[in-house]
Amino acid sequence: MDVSRYEKLRTTVRENFSEHTQQLVDEALTYAAEKLDGLRRYDGTPLLDHGVAVALIVISEVGLGRNSTLSSILHDVVRIAHKHSTPEEFLALTADIRERFGEQVVGITMGLANISELRLKVAKEQADNFRDLIVSYSEDPRVILIKLADRLEVMRSLGMFPHEKWRKKSWEAMNLYAQIAHKLGLYTIKSELEDIALKYLEPKEYEHIVTKLEESADERRAFIARFLVPITRRLDEQGFKYHVKSRTKSIFSIWNKMHKQHVPFEGVYDIFAIRIIIDCPPKEEKAQCWTVFSIVTDFYTPNPNRMRDWISIPKSNGYESLHTTVSAKGRWVEVQIRTERMDAVAERGIAAHWRYKGVNQGAQTSEMWLGRLRELIEDTTHSLAQRFDAKPASGEIFVFTPNGDLRKLPEGATLLDFAFDIHTSLGATCAGGKVNNRAVSIREPLHNGDIVEILTQKNQTPKSDWLSFVVTSKARNKIKSYIREEQAKHTRMGREELERKLKNWKLGITIDEAVAYLARHFKLRLGTEIYALIATQKLDFGTIKELLTRHLSGAAEEERRAAAAEAERQKAALHTQKEAPASQDALIIDDDISKIQYKLARCCNPIKGDEVFGFVTINSGITIHRCDCPNARRMRENYPYRVIEARWRQSAEGAFRVTLRIVAADVTGMVNHITEIISRDLKLNIRAMNFTTAANGCIDGTIAVEVPGASIVDTLIHQIMRIKGVQRAYRIN
Questions:
Q1: How far is the C-alpha of 103 from the C-alpha of 217, rounded, in Å?
Q2: Which residues of the chain have pLDDT under 70?
């Protein structure tokens, strides 16, 4: 490495830092030169030139310290390794940098590498989301400041880049990085980023404004000199220590005002501002600024609507200044009054609070202003000081499509939410997807910065259980809308088919009467449910014809009366059982069910410990149902005279069979983990097991287990849900 090539940086370091820091910077230069050997920029210069230039900006224009300087020099080393090395090689590199330069340097360079890998798209409506995402990727607030310095160096060197990169880099500088710089009070960097970006995005308009500024420069200087004569005379008489600067409005600001107000260059009146900067002790700052304000307004009439007092109440980013606009010979002139300290803050942002006049006041003071910077960014953006994979504090996450479009979703959003956010048809046919090239199910929760690809199947349609895991209102509404449409379609199809069959059968019954009877028979609340069963072929017409024939012949009514009589007989028999007085009205269920005329219902498979009731059937005696059985409410509403109370005998013993439904990630050994929990840990017998591979990277199946009672079922489900990769486990009967 040619040491003299980077002498400017070495000199700057000597002027600002200790001898130890100088040695570390020299070591970092040598280390980076070795790692980046042979890599060139677009103009053929060494790639290390970029890191060195960024380090100079970081020291001289931002006011950061040793670790930031070292990180600037090394950031390309980490960025390239992060992108091209194997995981093992990258870990070895970061371990080496950690040993040589410390943990903070590794953390900062990793944050910069993460931002560099963002695929940002030129999209005005997404600019806010991108800005927040860039900030949320910063574990350390210095990452943002160095990234701003990095982008400023790129913009200053943009001429060497290929023309096709000019527009994208300029758009990002203007809409993303300049806005972040503005929030941090780095107005000088903000203005330069915007001006350079405008030069490449709107070259003709940029040159027009530059030419106009040059043409009016002499007249402007003469006017300012005349304007200042009485003010400076009075300041000198009163013994103020001060100096005056005139600030010309940035080219971008002039261009922006011309477009917003639809005026030519000559129509922008506040082309320049005069800045009076006082040198005084901190305790006298406020008083002296107001005294100078009084002197200015003694000679020129102020505009009360253009008064800005940011001394009494500074801006959130630390900006302090007193602004007034006064009239001078028919022309409005903006005057800014501030102290040397305030001016340093305005030029270099929050860093100048603690590094005022370039003095390095030590690590403790550095931590103070870094802490203030964290608070500032947290106040003005979604998140900061959070790790790369953390979710923003606002409850929102940012995820990408494969081609770089950015989408903002609520925290906890799933792959299916993302699919519906892109397009309704994509969500409706979503069968799974990939997150960062990893196959996942539609239920996969997304995280900040994920790159998400959706996989679809033509025959896929929204299911009602999708409502149990989507979180966005768009997804929920679209799924509900689809289900309603399907139900309406089934109702229409089912009714048409039933009408046609009734006409062919010539049974002499209206369709409404037929449906009402069928709904009562199958214990359904709505007739539309009958139509849906017909449309989906879950209820065949042979059964319907048989039921309607029996209904019309009166046989069904006889069965109803027989059932009622049987219910009364069973109730009377129960009163004779030898049970405690409080329990005499309840059917006592024992383990020996063969001697009693009842059986356990297959629809809900009750087991000892479940809350149950009895239901008197026509031909099969009493069936025992769980109180939460899907058919329970219909039975109680339609046939209250056939419902009897029931409970388990406390001393009853036996083995009951329960079936669990399990959905889990399709990973090696998953089924083995599940069976070990059941057999080895809980000592239960498995009676049947059936698992199939789903299309969304999961396995889906059932396990039938023999249990002594309901109390063990909750424990069983809890233990299975603790297995990593298990998404759902619940009892189905």
A1: 51
A2: 1-3, 118-140, 316-317, 348-395, 404, 525, 554-587, 590-597, 619-620, 650-654, 695, 733
Residue 513: CB atoms within 10 Å: 12
CA Rg value for the chain: 39
Tokens, residue 565: 């009589």
User: Structure pTM?
Assistant: 0.51
At which residue do the structure tokens 């992108």 appear? 83
Query: Within a 13 Å sphere around the CA of 678, how many CA atoms are in the beta-carbon half?
Result: 25
What are the residues whose beta carbons fall under 8 Å from the beta carbon of 59, sequence distance 6 or more? 12, 13, 16, 69
Over residues 565-589, the pLDDT tens digits come to 544 554 455 444 434 343 445 667 7
Contact 144, 135 (CB under 8 A): yes
Among candidate residues 585, 638, 629, 635, the one with its CA nearest the CA of residue 615: 635
CA gap 32, 52 in Å, rounded: 10
Buried b / exposed e over 395-428, threshold 16 CB at 10 Å, is ebbbbbbeeeebbbbebebbbbbbbbbeebeebb
**In one letter, which amino acid is 492?**
R
What is 206-254 written as a DSSP string?
A: HHHHHHHHHHTHHHHHHHHHHHHHHHHHHHHHTT--EEEEEEEPPHHHH
User: Tokens 């486990």 sit at which residue?
Assistant: 729
The dihedral of CA 215, 219, 222, 223: what is its sign?
Answer: negative
385 close to 140: Cβ distance less than 8 angstroms: yes
Tokens 């001898």 — which residue? 19
Q: Which of 682, 669, 731 is nearest to 703 (CA)?
A: 731
Structural domains of the chain sorted by starting position, each given as residue range(s) with its CATH number in brackets: 3-186 (1.10.3210.10), 212-348 (3.30.460.10), 396-471 (3.10.20.30), 481-553 (no CATH), 557-648 (no CATH), 656-731 (3.30.70.260)
For residues 374 and 426, is the Cβ–Cβ distance under 8 A? no
SS3 533: helix
d(CA 440, CA 397): 18
Sort 305 into a burial class: Cβ within 10 Å, 0-12 / 13-18 / 19+.
exposed
Asked whether the beta carbons of 453 and 433 are under 8 A apart, the reply is yes
What span, in angstroms and rounded, lies between the C-alpha atoms of 463 and 473? Answer: 16
Strands 698-707 and 685-693, bridge-based pairing:
antiparallel
Q: Which residue carries 């290390």 as its tokens?
A: 48
